[in-house]
Amino acid sequence: MNTQTVNSLMAAISDVGRDQTRGGYSRPVYSGAETTLREWFSAEATARGLDVSTDANGIIWAWWDLPGATDTALSRRGALVTGSHLDSVPGGGAFDGPLGVASALAAHDVLAAREASGALLRNRAMAISVFPEEEGSRFGVACLGSRLLTGAINPVRALNLRDANGNTFADVAAANGMDPAGFGRDEAALTLIGDFIELHVEQGKGLNSEAHTDHAGRGPALAIGDTILGHGRWKLSFTGQGNHAGTTLMADRADPMLAAAQMIVAVRATASAQDNARATVGRLEPVPGGTNVIASRVDLWLDVRHPEDAVTAMLVQKIHGQAQRIAAMEGCAVFLTEESLSGTVHFDPVLANALAASVRRTVPGAPLLPTGAGHDAGVLAAEVPTGMLYVRNPSGISHSPEEHVENDDAHAGVQALADVLEDLL
Ligand code: GLV
Ligand code: MN
Ligand code: MN
Ligand code: MN
Question: Per the similarity annotation, which family is this (predicted)?
Fold first, then answer.
């Protein structure tokens, strides 16, 4: 039997996709690094006797079938599924995604040992799943795999998404052995998922907040997911007059960089004036992007999040209005495009309470916590009961090389995940 700790599994992939320029990891979907990780996962799952396949939407499934199941297709219906993703943001941390995948493998090992000793009797099959393009770092739409699976994104739109080099998702998918005609809502795959559980590094300071820390300032190792903040992405394209940096008088310019600069400041002011709102400009692309060139266009990507979907919509409307005024002041124009939008998710309360009861056997103070980060579990929540476990991240920093999980907490995560899965199997 293959038995590995989560820490040894994480150590085995610690060199894959390191970003020498940004620090941390850059593992864009269907790139060399992410492909290496997908192959690593498939090999690890196969070594455990799991039945590995990739579905029409690029999601990997590793099946731990019921012992003695004769009709596997039938016995997989309503299975317990756990997993996460292996792609990363540019210059991301080691844990966002891979921790959930490695923990699922390690939890499987714990459960397989319990089954072998006769201590675990299962009522249903289990699968570990790996979702592609959770971060949307390459094609712009986060949770692309789960959105395709559930039909939350139109496959025609998905196929036409482009990466920074102009490659369409259709071409990249085809180059990776997938049939672009096969993308879209997959009823058969959805009937296989009875419940979905995702373990993830915590991406904020919830566990280390005053409400949960002990006298030494240390929070519990784990939390249970409660809600996911509604969030979306928009692109604001400011267009002006491309021109020569040396010959164009300051008064004669229509410089979209100036509009973008004012926009970034306005975004902060607008979000800061609204309780619980978060708005970010983390990506800016001047075209053509030359030091001695006044840009002809600047694309600015906006990420807005708020617990109330109507407030998110109001904030974006407000920001769009500001963009139009700023553009006009600079002699420029602006176009707004919505790239994705996800409403606030309330995880299934019955499942969340069951998870809490299981987790608290080993981590007594584990709280239910909201998160501002998006996840495939949030997309799947529209279809099946889903739940999440968060592993303590001492600084709360994420989407950064400094993202961190302590070995003991990762281990506690696996023990708790194994207990959660056992109770649901
Ligand atoms: C993904 O991690 C997101 O929340 O943007
Ligand atoms: Mn993630
Ligand atoms: Mn992430
Ligand atoms: Mn995420």
Answer: Belongs to the peptidase M20 family.
Q: How many CB atoms lie within 10 A of CB 151?
A: 15
CATH number belonging to the domain at 230-342, selected among 1.10.600.10, 3.30.70.360, 3.40.50.720, 3.90.1150.10: 3.30.70.360
Question: Which residue among 25, 95, 135, 228 is best mutated to probe the pocket of ligand 1, counting the most ligand atoms within 8 A of its Cβ?
Answer: 135
The amino acid sitting at 4 is Q
> In a 3-state reduction of DSSP, which class is residue 284?
strand
CA 400 to chain CA centroid, Å, is 14
Residues with CB under 5 A from ligand 2 (ion): 96-97
- Centre of ligand 1 from the C-alpha of residue 374, in Å: 4
Inter-residue contact 22 to 282 (CB < 8 Å): no
Convert 167-180 to b/e letters by CB count within 10 Å (16 or more is b).
ebbbebbeeeebeb
CA atoms within 13 A on the CB side of 159: 15
Domain spans, the chain: 6-229+344-424, 230-342
Asked if CATH classification 2.40.30.170 holds for the domain at 6-229+344-424, the reply, yes or no, is no
Q: How far is the CA of 190 from the centre of ligand 3 (A)?
A: 24
Dist CA 384 CA 187 (whole Å):
12
Per-residue pLDDT tens digits for 60-93: 999 999 998 889 989 999 999 999 999 999 999 9
* Residue 357: both structure tokens together: 């009861």
**Which ligand 1 atom is the nearest neighbour of the CA of 143?**
1
Residue 82 has which token pair? 């756990």
Using the mean position of ligand 3's atoms as its centre, give its distance from the Cα of residue 62 in Å.
Answer: 22
Residue entry with tokens 């809490």: 356
> Going along 160-311, which residue ranges are E strands?
193-201, 222-228, 230-239, 243-244, 278-287, 293-294, 297-306
Point out the ligand 1 atom lying closest to the alpha carbon of residue 303. Answer: 5
Q: Is 373 in the pocket of ligand 1 (CB under 6 A)?
A: yes
Residues in the chain: 425
Residue 197: which of 389, 5, 358 has the closest Cα?
389
163 lines ligand 1 (CB under 6 A): no
Residues 6+ apart with CB under 8 A from 162: 139, 168, 169
Cβ-in-10-Å burial (0-12, 13-18, 19+) of 93 comes to buried
Q: Is the CB of 142 under 6 A from ligand 1?
A: yes
Alpha carbon of 161 to ligand 3 centroid (Å): 20
Span from the CA of 135 to the centroid of ligand 1 (angstroms) = 6
Interval 252-266 mean pLDDT: 98
Which value does ipTM take for this structure? 0.92
